[in-house]
Amino acid sequence: MTSVQNFIGPPGCTAETASFVPPSPDRLREALGNWEKYRHFEEKDRLVQLAVAKAQFELIHPFLDGNGRIGRMLVPLFLFEKGILSSPMFYVSAYFEEHRDVYYVRLQGISREDDWNGWIQFFLTAVAEQAQANADKTRDILALYERMKREAPQAIRSQYGIQAIDALFDRPIFTSTDFIARSGIPEDSARRILKALQDEGFVGRFRAGKGRRATVLVFSDLIEITEKGR
Fold this sequence. Notes:
By secondary structure, the chain is mainly α. The chain contains ten helices and three strands, in the order αααααααβααββα. It has a three-stranded antiparallel β-sheet. 23% of the residues are buried.
């Protein structure tokens, strides 16, 4: 594969010692430099390039803490930089978490057997399946929005109905103060609308208020969609 280098440490490390052995400190700068050069290389298949760059970063393991978080961030940022995404909003972490054992086995396969094909196949499958899951969630959210536009105005009975619905989708866990500020609805009308939404079951209580701590409300239908399959 064009300009790909194996930056990882010695193969054959066992579960009793470590999952991976990253480069020694004296090789770290060189490894990161080579990784950066490959990331900017004009590879023909950008998704394969991302798969390789993702694995290389994880196996270089350059930081004492936060390598996993940074590695996850690299995926949407790379896709956005290469023009595959219109915004850096794609997160494949749910698939990796669900298939955690396979994830580590495939990375170990690179370290122990130089098995890049196994990792690339796993990574591309993860991207495809996560993209499908995200698309399904998007369709469900749009369907919920259309349903809310049909049903909620009957409970709200206000000229601010759409503003109220948009505020729920903008922040589904909120206090009344948040709702008023984000919806732009006059305070008296906003509080009346919130009461109507609670009375009709569109909005529920997430956490009861106590003392100076405000009650937190939740638009559960949206939360259920976004949490599904995570």
